[in-house]
Amino acid sequence: MGVIDTDRDWCAIADAFPYFGVITEERYKNPSAEDLKEFFATGQNEIAAFLARSERIFGPFEPKSALDFGCGVGRLLIPLAKLAGNATGVDVSDKMLSLARKHAKDAGVSVTLTKSIPADQTFDWVNSHVVLQHISPRRGYSIIHDLWDALAPGGLLVLHITTFRDKAHLGDLLGNDSIVGYDGERAINYSKVDDQIRGILMYDYDLSHVFANMPMANGCPLYLEKVDHAGHHGFRIYVRKRPPVAQNRAVAFDPTVIEDAPKNTSDSAIRTIAAKVGTRVGLLRRGADLIRQALSLSFLFRK
Ligand SMILES: C[S@@+](CC[C@H](N)C(=O)[O-])C[C@H]1O[C@@H](n2cnc3c(N)ncnc32)[C@H](O)[C@@H]1O
Q1: 68 has which bridge partners?
Q2: Per-residue model confidence (pLDDT) at position 219
């Protein structure tokens, strides 16, 4: 059995109820002007909160470009464009893209809209929120890889990932009016029956596979913020991409650095040094051990 075509579902959802597809509150099926104001205010607040949290963790950040994967009608794309001066929105649905274009124009911000992640460009801020949970992980992991590649050195990735549901959420699965989906791997996705749309499928990701698709050759601290999306639990991952590997490797094995880490160095001191030189703790320890071994051997030979 093949993977369910969630792209087709999203085009249908967007054609029927674009705003409700983003925030599943009844009023967003036919939103008034006032409803839309509140709808877009949620995006402004979320981007402000993501930025504030990122700055608390990693320090000041002034992005000059941004990418929003699964941008929908532009709820997060517009505040990202305000912040960075311009932003690129990627979405599978033509309807979502045309609404995002209209709302960005109304807001007076500059956006580029496309159906795929640009392969030849990198961005200071790469964002994706409440999107991957609707895409089969088998496809999603490679999308994460592409998003990581699209992140500029020094850039910030804010990525929402779902990993499990609680009873409140799984309650829907047991109702009389549910469709249970099977994507060829796991019978974990499901949708509520709706008269006009097939439904919104939900998936759980494995965090270790997520990280495996963010190749951090020189290590980057990851910050996980717990997210409970109506009983569908997961994380927002915040990570700043370190500059190219070659530079850091050279510094990590510089003997002056290793001298900073004598045998009795505490774990916290090792972590501080690792952060200072931009390498992983394990790498630094291995390097230090090798040099120590070499030194003790040469000592034996001298004897
Ligand atoms: C729940 S909405 C979230 C929209 C936006 N991120 C927000 O928070 O306002 C999910 C969006 O992901 C888009 N989407 C779903 N599958 C996609 C895919 N394979 N590639 C790009 N966008 C996709 C949908 O069309 C929809 O606009």
Answers
A1: 89, 127
A2: 77
CA angle 155–147–225, rounded 5-degree value:
70
- Distance from the Cα of residue 206 to its chain's centroid: 14
List the chain residues with pLDDT less than 70. Answer: 1-4, 169-199, 217-218, 244-303
Q: Distance between CA 186 and CA 233 in Å, rounded? A: 18
Angle (CA) 186 188 190, round 5°: 130
- Which of 36, 76, 91 best tests ligand 1's pocket when mutated (most atoms within 8 Å of CB)? 91
All residues at 6 or more sequence positions from 222 whose CB lies less than 8 Å from its CB, including other chains: 211, 237, 238, 239
> Within 6 Å (CB) of ligand 1, which residues are found?
6-7, 10, 14, 21-22, 43, 70-72, 75-76, 90-93, 96, 129-131, 134-135
The pair of structure tokens assigned to 110 is 């500059």
Measured between alpha carbons, how far is residue 177 from residues 28, 92, 130, 195 in Å?
22, 28, 24, 11
Torsional class of 231: left (φ above 0), alpha (ψ -120 to 50), beta (otherwise): left
Classify domain 6-243 at the CATH topology level. Rossmann fold (3.40.50)
Calculated CA dihedral for residues 167, 168, 170, 174, nearest 10 degrees: 100
Q: Where are the domains of the chain?
A: 6-243, 246-302
The pTM of this model reads 0.78
User: What are the C-alpha distances in Å from 123 to residues 161, 184, 188?
Assistant: 20, 34, 34
Tell me which residue of 148, 303, 122, 294 sits closest to 212, measured CA to CA.
Answer: 148
